[in-house]
Recover the amino acids of this structure.
């Protein structure tokens, strides 16, 4: 039987009866446990959002002036990892695009740190501008031309990872643009240079707190109902993932994804408790590895320095050691900002206050 230009076949293996669709050389089991894999990916933005109604409304209100040709209110969304800052900001912007002609420009400070990388990422169609052989000034001017010609909402994720403070100053000056900054630390701008701090002094701050167990359960059930076959995961297994994730939606969704694929690979009808236990451990381990991989060269030097130390180090000692071992050391203020990011991702632990504060690697 033909199906969208492909072929449908049936195959019985053991007690399971599958229907396979072959389309453009890709084979998918129609009756498989995972029906919409995209829903389980990290960067998926849902069509509807569970919880965070207050934050949704506040972001929308801050952007609303753009619908009347007025400048919007720039924002800083802050809170720990896995609380929906990025997903909510992109969700609101996409809903806004359904009502008004506005561009969305997104950049992640972990993936794009230099001036060239940031502005290249912000181009909505970067393929039209060759990456190789194009100067930074050309890329910046191309983005400025697009921002001048059309209202734009710029989302700067992981803003504290940007290498050049001047990038923020430039982005804040576009008259037809609104900027949503995303960070873990509510005081992130105090760790930038004076001119940037002054320019961003009027940014509205919005705190995203950890999800409660009931909220995270609702989010995971909503994700599972959209991604998996009916009955593939029970409420008991959802609750188990939630209890292990400690309010972090990233860990919860990653655990669900790993458990789903593990159960499917083992030809299971449902996700079992044993599969969940394994998958949660893998999610935490992978998150730790990813966090270390994303560190910039200055944070990696801090990591190596603390790794060699037999005891916690104060900021002065840590900065002096770092400065002697780096060819292009950053300022003490910038390094402090980088270390705060390492704290937020559970890589570094800090104890004490102010001048007595010491740092060590987290277990």
């Amino acid at each position: 039987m033909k199906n969208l230009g492909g072929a449908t076949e049936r195959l019985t293996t053991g007690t399971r009866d599958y229907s396979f669709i072959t389309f453009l050389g890709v084979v998918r089991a129609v009756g498989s446990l995972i029906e919409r894999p995209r829903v389980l990916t990290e960067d998926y933005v849902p069509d509807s959002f569970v919880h965070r109604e207050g934050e949704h409304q506040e972001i929308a209100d801050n952007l609303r002036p753009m619908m009347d040709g007025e400048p919007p209110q720039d924002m800083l969304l802050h809170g720990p990892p896995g609380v929906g800052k990025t997903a909510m900001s992109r969700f609101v912007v996409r809903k806004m695009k359904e009502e008004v002609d506005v561009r969305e420009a997104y950049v992640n400070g972990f993936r794009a740190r230099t001036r060239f990388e940031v502005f290249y990422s912000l181009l909505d169609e970067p393929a039209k501008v060759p990456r190789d052989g194009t100067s930074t000034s050309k890329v910046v001017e191309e983005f400025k031309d697009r921002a001048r010609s059309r209202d734009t909402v710029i989302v700067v994720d992981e803003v504290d990872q940007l290498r050049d403070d001047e990038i923020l100053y430039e982005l804040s000056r576009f008259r037809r643009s609104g900027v949503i900054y995303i960070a873990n630390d509510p005081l992130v701008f105090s760790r930038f240079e004076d001119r940037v701090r002054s320019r961003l002094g009027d940014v509205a701050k919005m705190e995203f707190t950890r999800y409660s167990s009931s909220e995270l359960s609702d989010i995971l059930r909503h994700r599972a109902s959209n991604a998996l076959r009916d009955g593939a995961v029970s409420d008991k297994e959802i609750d188990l993932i939630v209890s292990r994730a400690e309010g972090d939606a990233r860990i919860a969704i990653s655990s669900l994804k790993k458990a789903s694929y593990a159960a499917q690979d083992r030809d299971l009808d449902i996700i079992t408790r044993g599969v969940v236990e394994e998958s949660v451990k893998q999610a935490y381990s992978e998150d730790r590895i990813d966090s270390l991989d994303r560190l910039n060269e200055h944070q990696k030097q801090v990591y190596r320095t603390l790794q060699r130390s037999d005891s916690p180090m104060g900021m002065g000692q840590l900065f002096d050691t770092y400065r002697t071992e780096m060819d292009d050391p950053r300022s003490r203020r910038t390094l402090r900002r980088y270390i705060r990011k390492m704290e937020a991702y559970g890589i570094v632990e800090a104890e004490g206050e102010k001048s007595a504060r010491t740092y060590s690697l987290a277990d």
Notes: The chain is about 45% helix and 15% strand. The chain has three domains: 32-44+212-291, 57-207, 295-361. The domain at 295-361 is CATH 1.10.10.10 (Arc Repressor Mutant, subunit A). Residues 1-30 have pLDDT under 50 and may be disordered.
